[in-house]
Design goal:
- By secondary structure, the protein is α/β, with parallel strands linked by helices.
- It is 36% helix and 16% strand.
- It has helices at 16-35, 67-87, 108-113, 140-153, 167-180, 191-196, 213-218, 234-248, 258-270, 352-355, 366-378, 396-413, 427-430, 436-448, 463-466, 481-493, 512-527, 546-550, 585-599, and strands at residues 2-5, 43-50, 99-101, 132-133, 157-161, 185-189, 197-200, 205-208, 228-232, 278-284, 288-295, 316-317, 330-335, 383-386, 420-425, 451-459, 498-505, 533-538.
- Strands 1, 2, 3, 4, 5, 6, 9, 10 and 11 form a 9-stranded mixed beta sheet that branches.
- The chain is globular and about 75 Å long.
Length: 614
């Protein structure tokens, strides 16, 4: 199976006028065909799924994957489908004559009450919120429910969003989709796709990792059960792909050829007045893989719909309790101000070196972010957590502006509903010596605007380990990492904000001595009231990270079908084949039992993930 790399689609692609004329002709022929076919289906069924990581409902970290990645990717396609449903057919043939059926947006009353895991079938909840299958755990019960959904809906297209640790289950779900909804197209996206499909514009080359869906199918490690992979800017990428699919669909249900959809992509792109986003679409045909890069205008967050425009806030985060609505925590919305981290930690898959994705919000768009958060509060959110790797990229002026804007929005609304929020920062962002006064003022502002919690990646308390990490460490007059961590935590706590942390074992320089050192030093921070939560994690190799390359882990098994087992199940994303080569299984057991004993109830098995389905 060869790879065919197509020319880039961009606003400057040659032959645009010819393509536009051909598209107009195709749309006219399609309208006539559908109008002349009794019972022609202008709207086709679609189903999206958040692929889970866990395989057990007890004694395991039920890491939910990345729900906001899926929600964000669906925004433009759903908005297009809902608009088409409400407006009906236009007088003149249009691209949206045929469109995916996402139902309608939830009512405000629905949004304010729908919480926790989805338990109903799509047929019983035909809103946009009801079109997501989100089992949280992949076991026999989830498998049966997924099959039931497939048989009931017979979706034309199934959209699967997976982080790398969930990819093995995405392949199984794709196989089930092909079996129980014959003829459907399966599209895989999410963080795993972003990490394993990388297009380089400068050289016009594409790198398909050994762990990628494409390579797993190409060399026979998986059956050919996936038709498309979308990597990069998911919202415009999926929107373009579904428009191309809609262009080639027949009036009556039936299979669609991947080749036909690929052929339609340049026509749809040419007919788009404003081609946006940077992404790569890989189509898996019978005899080849066709890779279609798209380089459109860069999107800002203000141009994209809120990820919650189509969905209810369903999560609860135990660290937020101000609302007092549930013993497992407040209803918590996720937000992001940027997609990737500006720093270059060797282990991190969210680093700009790996994701290469642009900032989601410009620092000048703080008012827009505050408006969006105010809307979420109106929709029933009792708390919000900013999942950015670093809140506003560590820009203290942007953080200050956001806090002022949020206070102004809440005052304008006369909003007295209890609400709190949290965000992620780094030790060095907090200890910015050149801006110490600004940092102090902004931390006060954060607390005044409702921030009650900050999450910091401590990673290790062993200096010999941190010397290898490549965090945003001060290069001049370097200070001991243990001292810096304590000072950063004391600074945040001094402004009345609680702190939680992640701790990562298995980095370069790690051994049993450094493990013991880190567990004890974190324990002292807990004893001194500086940490309200500490989450132990095991280094897991992700495609594209520096440490993965340094350790020679270029063939990561994220495809084999297997259930996980202890001690790996006590940590997010940890599987025997993909964790740090510096740790033995005995080491991992030791980390689990020692952290549990030393940190007590402050140890949070779920890191900063949420208690209920997102």
């Amino acid at each position: 199976m060869k790879t065919a790399l197509r020319p880039v689609l961009s606003p400057r692609s040659p032959g645009k006028e010819t393509a536009v004329d051909e598209l107009a002709s195709r749309l006219l022929r399609r309208r006539r065909l559908f109008d002349s076919t009794p019972g022609a289906r202008y709207r086709y069924p679609v189903m999206a799924a958040l692929v889970p990581v866990a395989t057990s409902r007890g004694g395991e970290v039920a890491y939910p994957g990345d729900p906001m990645c899926l929600y964000s990717a669906l925004t433009l396609a759903i908005r297009r489908g809902v608009a088409r449903s409400r407006a009906g057919l236009s007088e003149q043939p249009a691209l949206d004559d045929v469109c995916a059926d996402w139902g309608d947006y939830p009512t405000d009353a629905y949004r304010r009450t729908a919480s926790g895991p989805r338990t109903t079938l799509i047929a019983d909840n035909p809103t946009t919120d009801g079109h997501v299958f989100d089992p949280r755990v992949w076991d026999g019960a989830a498998r049966t429910r997924f099959i039931t959904e497939l048989r009931a809906q017979r979706p034309t297209v199934v959209l699967l969003s997976a982080v790398s640790a969930a990819h093995r289950y995405a392949l199984e779900m794709a196989e089930l989709a092909k079996t129980h909804s014959p003829g459907c197209l399966v599209v895989v996206g999410g963080r795993h796709a972003d990490e394993t499909v990388r297009y380089a514009p400068a050289s016009h080359t594409v790198d398909l990792s050994w762990s990628s869906t494409v390579e797993v199918i190409r060399d026979g490690r998986s059956a050919p059960v996936v038709d498309f992979v979308v990597a990069g800017d998911g919202a415009p990428g999926l929107d373009l792909l579904l428009q191309a699919l809609s262009l080639v669909l027949a009036p009556e249900p039936g299979p669609v050829r991947t080749e036909d959809v690929l052929a339609a992509l340049p026509l749809v792109a040419a007919g788009t007045d404003d081609l946006t986003g940077s992404y790569t679409i890989a189509g898996l045909c019978a005899d080849r893989v066709v890779v279609q890069p798209v380089l459109g205008r860069r999107l800002t967050s203000a141009e994209l719909p809120s990820p919650y425009e189509a969905f209810s806030v369903r999560s609860r985060f135990a660290v937020f309790t101000r609302a007092g609505s549930s013993p497992v925590g407040s209803r918590t919305a996720h937000m992001m101000t940027l997609d990737s981290c500006p720093f270059k930690c060797t282990f991190c898959s969210e680093s700009i070196q790996v994701s290469q994705r642009p900032t989601r919000f410009a620092v000048s768009e703080t008012a827009h972010a505050a408006d969006r958060l105010a809307q979420l509060i109106d929709w029933g959110a009792e708390a919000a957590f900013f999942d950015d790797p670093v809140f506003w990229g560590g820009n203290w002026k942007a953080i200050s502006d956001f806090c002022h804007d949020l206070q102004a929005r809440r005052a304008e609304q006369g909003d007295t509903v209890p609400f709190e929020w949290g965000a992620q920062l780094t030790v060095d962002v907090v200890l910015n010596r050149a801006k110490a006064a600004e940092v102090a003022q902004t931390l006060d502002l954060m607390a005044a605007s409702g921030c009650t919690y900050v999450y910091i990646g401590i990673e290790s308390m062993a200096q010999r380990v941190m010397d290898h990490v490549g965090k945003n460490l001060t290069r001049r007059n370097p200070e001991a990492w243990v001292d810096k961590v304590r000072e950063a935590l004391e600074t945040i706590r001094g402004h009345g904000i609680r702190v939680g942390s992640s701790v990562l074992f298995g980095l370069d320089g790690e051994n049993r001595e450094t493990i013991e050192e880190t567990i004890e030093e974190i324990g002292r921070l807990i004893d001194d009231g500086l940490l309200v939560m500490a989450s132990p994690n095991i280094l897991t190799y992700h495609p594209g990270t520096a440490i993965t390359a340094q350790h020679g882990q270029d063939r990561l098994d994220y495809h084999s079908r297997k259930d996980n087992r202890p001690p790996y199940t006590y940590f997010e994303e940890a599987y025997p084949e993909v964790v740090s080569r510096l740790l033995t299984e005995d080491d991992i057991w030791y980390i689990h039992t020692s952290a549990e004993k030393r940190w007590g109830t402050t140890r949070n098995l779920d890191s900063h993930s949420l208690n209920e389905a997102s």
